[in-house]
Specification:
transmembrane helix; transmembrane; PTS_IIC_fruc; 4 strands; 348 residues; 74% helix; PTS_EIIC_2; mainly alpha; single chain; protein-N(PI)-phosphohistidine-sugar phosphotransferase activity
Length: 348
């Protein structure tokens, strides 16, 4: 079952991405149009036009479905159709906060990838069970989905989520201790955390920290974070168009959506690139986000709303520098991505 573990895993991640891309495009494009018409408010960009609100609703449906679709089709690649249902359910579970003690934990796309692999191999193992013909007919539609979801869902809640919550609390405490130190160091840390898991628990820890400071009237860390969230997807999109010998047509299609999502402050737009080639993607986007956030820290950029990207530039204390920091961070990240990425022929 594990004889070709590496190849099977790579194939599974690529399968997940191929089904995941159209959902990303739907979410990113509809959100881009709707949020572009909004106004900065206390809860981020507020869309007041009824028609644009409907577009926003459609876009959010796409965003909310991204992670479950990714998990389901990774599991599908490993285990076939019986892996789809538990993959969807557990993908939804890891992308939504679950209570762990006094903490609500959401593990985002990293949790989804981990749980999808567990689902795939668990279902694959269940399919080898020796049962009579009557039981075998209901295995794929009843026994496998229910038993897999029960066991692995409880495993996530009771085993995986708790240590992750400890890590998140530790990161929050570390960030809190950096507040009184160098603003640039804080910016570098926030930038790396923002890009590290692209909307996952580390990213959300930085977000929670900056929003907590906003309630105390401290807006500079939020400015750093809101610059950093836009960098990874924009950088991935730019790199896919710059280095045509290192990215295929599917990557460039993802790149269009990624740039849209970066402009409206949705870091998850970089996820398809990271899933396909994490080793060559993560260093560049982490460095680029760190550069952008550090520049914002050095310039004292403040953002007064809990949202990011170019669309909230009007809600900052320096529109020009805020936009420039996003551009510089994105260009730095794109340059590193292009330099590190192997040519398509070499990859083959």
């Amino acid at each position: 079952m594990f004889s070709n573990f590496g190849k099977d895993l790579l194939k599974a991640f690529n399968t997940g991405v191929s089904y995941f891309i159209p959902v990303v495009v739907i979410g990113g494009v509809f959100l881009a149009f709707s949020l572009a018409s909004g106004k900065a408010g206390a809860n981020g960009m507020e869309v007041t036009n009824p028609f644009m609100q409907n577009l926003n609703l459609i876009g959010m449906a796409g965003i909310n479905m991204m992670i479950p679709v990714l998990a389901a089709y990774i599991a599908y690649s490993l285990a076939g159709k019986p892996g789809l249902a538990p993959g969807f359910v557990l993908g939804y579970l890891v992308n939504n906060p679950v209570p762990v003690g006094e903490t609500n934990v959401s593990t985002g796309f990293l949790g989804a990838m981990i749980m999808a692999v567990f689902v795939g191999y668990w279902v694959k193992w269940m399919k080898t069970w020796k049962v009579n013909d009557t039981i075998r007919t209901i295995m794929p539609v009843l026994i496998i989905p229910i038993f897999s979801t029960l066991v692995l869902g409880l495993f996530y809640i009771y085993v995986l989520a708790f240590p992750l919550s400890l890590v998140m609390n530790w990161l929050t405490n570390v960030l809190g201790s950096l507040q009184g130190g160098s603003a640039i160091v804080l910016g570098l840390v926030i930038g790396v955390m923002t890009a590290f898991d692209m909307g996952g628990p580390v990213n959300k820890t930085a977000s929670t920290f900056t929003m907590a400071l906003m309630t105390a009237g401290v807006y500079a860390p939020n400015g750093m974070f809101r610059v950093a969230v836009a960098v990874p997807p924009i950088a991935c999109g730019l790199a896919s168009f710059i280095a045509k010998n290192k990215f295929d047509d599917a990557d460039r299609q993802m790149g269009i959506s990624a740039i849209f999502m970066g402009c409206i402050g949705i870091t998850e737009g970089a996820i398809p690139f990271a899933v396909k080639d994490l080793g060559h993607t993560l260093p560049g986007i982490c460095i680029g986000s760190a550069v952008g956030a550090a520049l914002a820290a050095a310039q004292g950029i403040e953002c007064y709303v809990p949202h990011g990207g170019f669309i909230v530039a009007m809600a900052t204390n320096n529109i020009g520098l805020y936009c420039l920091d996003i551009v510089i961070g994105s260009l730095v990240a794109a340059a590193i991505l292009v330099a590190m990425k192997p040519k398509l022929e070499a990859k083959k």
